[in-house]
Design goal:
Layout: H1 2-20, H2 39-53, H3 55-58, H4 65-97, H5 106-118, H6 120-137, H7 144-150, H8 152-168, H9 174-186, E1 189-190, E2 195-196, E3 201-203, E4 209-210, E5 215-216, E6 221-223, E7 227-229, H10 237-241, E8 250-251, E9 256-257, E10 262-264, E11 269-270, E12 275-276, E13 281-282, E14 291-295, E15 298-302
Parallel strand pairs: 1-4, 2-5, 3-6, 4-7, 5-8, 6-9, 7-10, 8-11, 9-12, 10-13, 12-14
Antiparallel strand pairs: 14-15
Helix pairs in contact: 2-4, 2-9, 4-5, 6-8, 8-9
Length: 303
């Protein structure tokens, strides 16, 4: 009994000290975070949208054309309610505590969700090309169904294409919640601000990083461990100014980048049809049709 009383007293003392640490002097001291979006709710809405995109793969009940519209509505109505509310929470918090301005009205968030849903047919067409690129690009794939069900790259690109629409709409926080959810599930880190063209496939995918201002053309194939990143900047005012600049590379159409390659810098352009070998480190542009290979003793460039 005495030991239990002692532990209780110790715990109460710790609680007092933790409470006292909320002095308001630290960035993480904010007590207004109860108004922030809820991560689980965002993921719930995201899963409803994914189900509407791949209805035949997610449905647990028989489907046909007569029931199709109803089954889609079962996902889009709850997704609309949840996502409108979560976007409104994110926008209100951002506008109030970061922009120091009157928050945008709830109608703004509702209109954003409607515009996202209006783009779902276009997103489905893009994802169909991504799935086709994965199936054609991987001899181990036995069927399109296998690709959709089991390839982490399809999970990552699907969530990216949804989050990218919200990012382009100026929605704070929500796109990153979605992309980091994909990152934790797949090991593929795609910033929602990146611009990715048609038929993109990250083979294996684990460890792939695609930065915020990266631009990727059509028919690009990346292998695992590829980094399309930014050059490191010192922690100065110049680094803060860089937030508004293009910091990540441009990859033109029909490029293949093999595993472990690192390509950095906003001015770096990989020309159309180039092949970048494994473990290559690049901070400069290469012309179209270039082949870059890595040798531990030298870097050899072949045209």
């Amino acid at each position: 009994m005495a030991d239990r009383t002692g532990r209780h007293a110790a715990l109460e003392e710790v609680i007092d000290r933790v409470a006292e640490s909320y002095s308001g002097q630290q960035e993480i001291d904010s007590l207004e975070s109860a108004a922030l979006p809820n991560r689980r709710a965002v993921i719930d809405a995201l899963n409803h949208i994914k189900s509407a995109i791949y209805l035949g793969f997610y449905s647990t009940r028989p489907l046909d054309q007569s029931s199709l519209r109803f089954r889609i509505s079962e996902h889009l109505y709850p997704a609309y309610d949840i996502l409108s509310d979560q976007i409104h929470r994110a926008v209100t918090y951002h506008d109030t505590y970061h922009e120091r301005r009157p928050p945008r009205p709830r109608e703004w968030s509702e209109q954003v969700v409607i515009r996202l849903f209006q783009q779902l047919p276009t997103i489905r067409a893009l994802l169909n090309k991504d799935v086709r690129a994965a199936y054609r690009g991987d001899p181990a794939a036995k069927s399109v169904e296998e690709v959709v069900f089991s390839y982490p790259a399809i999970e990552a690109i699907t969530i990216y294409r949804i989050a990218h629409v919200l990012y382009a709409e100026g929605v704070p926080m929500i796109p990153r919640i979605m992309s980091e959810y994909a990152h934790s599930n797949t090991g593929i880190d795609i910033h929602p601000g990146a611009q990715i063209g048609e038929s993109c496939f990250s083979d294996h995918g684990t460890g792939t990083v695609i930065g915020e201002t990266c631009v990727i053309g059509n028919n690009v194939k990346l292998f695992h461990g590829v980094t399309l990143g930014a050059l490191s900047l010192p922690r100065t005012e110049e680094a803060n100014l860089a937030r508004g600049r293009k910091r990540h590379p441009t990859i033109e159409d029909d490029v293949i980048i093999y595993s472990g390659a690192t390509i950095l810098g906003g001015e770096t352009v990989i020309g159309r049809g180039s092949i970048i070998g494994g473990n290559v480190w690049l901070t400069e542009s290469v012309p179209p049709g270039t082949k870059i290979t890595y040798d531990p003793r030298l870097r050899r460039r072949e045209s």
